[in-house]
Design brief:
This protein has 124 residues and is mainly alpha-helical. The chain has 3 helices and 2 strands, in the order H-H-H-E-E. Helix 1 runs antiparallel to helix 2 and helix 1 packs parallel to helix 3. The N terminus is likely disordered.
Length: 124
């Protein structure tokens, strides 16, 4: 008796479809093409529904599929962390555009606000 093949074959098209979707998701995440993720999530869910409907398909394929799912989950988590960091940075710049605390040559704190054009004016 031989061990099940780790490669996708015509005999397991559900696995091939799911792995293709997971690879497309990985490429989209790495390329920052976040607009593609909702369609890929829909396709991934449809592929996973096949396994939910027939769990007997899963035992020999679980390690490979789980590894790909976990890899993409880590990439998604990192993408969310990056988006949160960017959002925080943008918020900082927006706050600085409204007002900013600075110090004069004598060390006194001075708050400056928007000038006539709605932007922080340099004080010389």
């Amino acid at each position: 008796m031989t061990a099940p093949s780790r490669r996708t074959t015509p005999g397991n098209p559900a696995e091939a479809r799911l792995l293709a979707v997971l690879e497309a998701e990985r490429r989209a995440l790495l390329a920052g093409e976040l607009a593609q993720l909702s369609e890929l999530a829909r396709r991934k869910e449809a592929c996973l529904d096949l396994y939910a409907a027939d769990p007997s398909r899963l035992p020999h394929r679980a390690p490979r599929l789980l590894a790909a799912l976990r890899r993409n989950q880590r990439l998604l988590e990192m993408a969310l962390q990056g988006l949160a960091a960017a959002q925080g940075r943008l918020g900082t710049w927006q706050r600085l555009g409204r007002q900013m605390d600075t110090y004069d040559p004598n060390g006194r704190k001075t708050r400056i606000g928007p000038g006539p054009a709605g932007r922080i004016q340099k004080k010389l």
